[in-house]
Amino acid sequence: MARPSYSVRRLKPDDIAACERLLAGLPDWFGFEETNRGYIHDLRTLPAYVAIAPGEVVGFLAIKSHTPAASEVHVLAVARDRHREGIGRALLDVAEGDLTRAGIRLLHVKTLGPSKLDAGYEKTRAFYSAMGFLPLEELELWGPDQPCLIMVKVL
Prior knowledge:
With 155 residues, the chain is an alpha+beta fold. It has one domain: Gcn5-related N-acetyltransferase (GNAT) (Aminopeptidase, 3-Layer(aba) Sandwich). It is 30% helix and 33% strand. The protein contains four helices and seven strands, in the order E-H-H-E-E-E-H-E-H-E-E. Strands 1-2-3-4-5-7-6 form a seven-stranded mixed β-sheet. Strand 6 and strand 7 form a beta hairpin. The chain is globular and about 40 Å long.
């Protein structure tokens, strides 16, 4: 098996501009400018990780803690041309290791629910399912046209 052409480490402040550019390149998943600004702002304070290929950020993930036992995948993004290379899996693996060592037992993620047909988000849900997340509940958290599926995983 070939070695990955990237490495994963904790996010540094100098990485934030590259994360912003990465989000801008994913309008099918991150198409709300105000939401994207919030994600980038949150990178300054939340525990976050980046996947680095030679000379560029190719993915990032931020974690939001809710209770001493539960956290959330606040944002996970991988450059479109790097999908299916294991980058999302690697980011989650590193974050989950840190969360487990910190005593976190549950991890959840919110994504577009299956009642809204969308091929891109179907792949997103399949990714999280492959990573061990189970669908918990679909809500109108983001409004009736953007059903929110909450998926959970025991760490």
